[in-house]
Design a protein that fits this description.
A six-stranded parallel β-sheet has the order 2-1-3-4-5-6. The chain contains seven helices and six strands; from the N terminus they run E-E-H-E-H-E-H-H-E-H-E-H-H. The protein is an alpha/beta fold.
Length: 262
């Protein structure tokens, strides 16, 4: 294994960086609501040689548990953009799951706006969105971010995001719920009036048994690019990138290779 040496400004935002062989390209991974960089650890054995896994660690979880949570979605996107600029020195793509997909989309839009104004930035080779409703698709059912702790726990358990054994660790659970509630509130409040397309290829992934972001809600991401678009329906529920890591990484690597992104 050989690690790259990105700009110092990235410190803290990328955790558990991993690449086998000489670095050729970078896959910047943005986690689901409440998730940390460690959620992508299971991907390591299945990555193609030369593809660097660069998982993002957001404030208020994981190794950054003592940091305050972002005040708003826009503040988080701004902070991510500034912190990750040093990662955009080699060919790269964004992979975002659930809440992370919205972050990846907004980062791509921000980068394209900045380069359109003359900024010297490399644009992403592809945007990969996973387990997320398209931004103009309204939420169905009741929101959960404003509910009490019991409702939030029940929602996490029902969707597969909280193993029962973690209920015996109240300190961990308290920190997890704090981050989940913040991220879910941002996601539930995120709704665009109409699709706004990016210029890079976009690939969407959905879990066949996902009840949080059903296949029908993921499919309209095809309206969000002027370039190539494809969609994969993979086995599993909402957390299929972890429960079916090998299958997910194979699909991601295959698509990026086909797009000549990695």
């Amino acid at each position: 294994m050989r690690a790259s040496n990105p700009a110092q400004d990235t410190a803290g935002w990328i955790s558990a960086r991993h690449v086998a062989g000489p670095l050729r390209s970078r896959l910047i991974c943005l986690p689901h609501a409440g998730g940390g960089a460690g959620t992508f650890r299971s991907w390591r054995p299945f990555l193609p040689e030369g593809v660097e896994l660069a998982p993002v660690e957001l404030p208020g979880r994981g190794s950054r548990i003592d940091e305050p949570l972002p005040r708003s979605f826009d503040v988080l996107v701004d902070a991510l953009f500034e912190a990750l600029r040093g990662e955009f020195t080699v060919p790269y793509a964004f992979f975002g799951h659930s809440f992370g997909a919205l972050l990846g989309y907004e980062l791509t839009r921000r980068i394209e706006r900045e380069t359109g104004r003359g900024a010297d930035l490399r644009r992403p080779s592809a945007l990969l969105v996973s387990g997320s409703r398209a931004p103009h698709v309204p939420l169905e059912g009741e929101t959960v971010a404003g509910g009490d702790e019991a409702r939030l726990i029940a929602w996490l358990r029902d969707s597969g995001g909280l193993p029962d054994e973690l209920l015996g660790f109240p300190d961990f659970l308290r920190d997890l719920l704090r981050a989940v509630r913040s991220d879910v509130a941002f996601a539930e409040g995120y709704l665009l009036p109409r699709p706004t397309a990016v210029s890079c290829p976009l690939v969407a992934f959905a879990g066949a048994e996902d009840t949080v972001s059903p296949v029908a809600h993921v499919a309209p991401w095809n309206l969000y690019t002027t370039a190539e678009h494809r969609m994969h329906v993979l086995p599993g529920g909402h957390y299929f990138p972890q429960s079916h890591a090998r299958t997910t990484v194979a699909a991601v690597a295959g698509e990026l290779a086909a797009l000549s992104a990695l």
